[in-house]
Amino acid sequence: MTIDQEIAKRRTFAIISHPDAGKTTLTEKLLLFGNVIRSAGTVKGKKSGKFAASDWMEIEKKRGISVTSSVMSFPYKDFHANILDTPGHEDFSEDTYRTLTAVDSVVMIIDATKGVEPQTIKLFKVCRMRGIPIFTFMNKMDREGRDPLELLSEIEEVLGIESYPMNWPVGMGKGFLGLYNRFGQEFVKFNGNEDEEYIPFAELDHHPEISEDSTFKSTKEEIELLEEAGNEFDAQRVKKGELTPVFFGSALANFGVKAFFDTFLNFAVPPQPRKTEKGYIEPNSETFSGYIFKIQANMNPAHRDRIAFLRVCSGKFERGMSVNVSRTNKSIKLNQTQAFMARDRETVDVAYPGDIIGIYDPNIYQIGDTLVEGKENYSYKELPQFPPELFRKVRVKNVMKAKQFRKGIEQLVQEGAIQLFRQDSTDDMILGAVGHLQFEVFEYRMKAEYNVEVEFVSLGDRIPRWIKNDKFEKRYFDSRSMLVRDRNENYAILFENDFTYRYFRDNNKEIELIDLLEENEYQ
Ligand code: G4P
Question: Which of 64, 94, 96, 367, CA to CA, is 20 to 30 A from 77?
Answer without folding.
Answer: 96
